Amino acid sequence: MFVDAHNHLDFYKDSLNLNKALNIIDCDNIKTLGCSMNLESYLFTKNLSISHKNIIPCFGIHPWEAYKNYRNLDTFDEYIKECKVIGEIGLDYHWVLESEKFPYMNRVFEYFSDKASKYNKITNIHTKGAENEVLQTIKKYNLRTPIIHWYSGDLDTLKKFLDYGCYFTISIDIGHSSLTNEIVKLLPLGRIFTETDGPTALKNNKYVYPDEVKNIIKWISFIKNIPYEEVKAQIWNNFNTLFSN
């Protein structure tokens, strides 16, 4: 079994590309956390999961969508209760340039963090440019073993996330990003997941499919000098450990 711990299946807009991605997930046995941007994308992924058992639909409001959804937070409780993972949630002070949207991001992130704590949910968290603020929120709500998505902050803060007990996804920039390579060297293998972040996280301007996780494993294996099969097995063990608690 392989793991794609952060994907956006609704980004495969074209049915041909979506069917190809779903076939890869099924045939290659890729356990996939299908993160949502909003309620619509969650329901889309939830529907896919009915006939594709490797897909785990995750419900959250992405920080980019927070300003559109902060008014109706109380309507989301039933979806939070039913999902195994809350995500994608978090903060983004890098790509979101309009400072007037920051209070809405914070309100939405606080809401979902409070619910995650209340219902003891795993979280899948976006931290871009807001790493310390996200860490403080995680601690404030005593969140259960969060998954930190595609971390790109400083290494001192990464160590604080690590000390808290977080897992980290390694994505398609491995081998091309010196920071990601350094993060892989620093992280224990027991805290690593692989991810693709959906088809629009382009690699060399090429469309990404879920089996890209195999190449990510190859790079982790190379950087950490650990056999491929051992890396693959440990990532799968990490997944089982997280979901058995």
Q: Descriptors for this entry?
A:
single chain, 245 residues, alpha/beta, 10 helices, globular
Describe the structure.
This protein is α/β, with parallel strands linked by helices. 46% of the residues lie in helices and 16% in strands. It is built from ten helices and eight strands. An eight-stranded parallel sheet has the order 1-2-3-4-5-6-7-8. The model has no long low-confidence stretch (mean pLDDT 96).
Describe the structure concisely for a colleague:
Helices cover 46% and strands 16% of the residues. The protein has 245 residues and is α/β, with parallel strands linked by helices. An eight-stranded parallel sheet has the order 1-2-3-4-5-6-7-8.
Average pLDDT over all residues: 96
Largest sheet at a glance?
8 strands, parallel
Low-pLDDT segments: none
What fraction of the residues are assigned to beta strands by DSSP?
15-25%
Please identify the structural class as seen in this structure: alpha/beta
Number of beta strands:
8
**Gap from first CA to last CA:** 19 Å
Radius of gyration: 17 Å
DSSP helical segment count: 10
Helix content class: 40-55%
Spell out the helices and strands N to C.
EHEHEHHEHEHEHEHEHH
The shape, in one word, is globular
**Order of strands side by side in the largest beta sheet?**
1-2-3-4-5-6-7-8
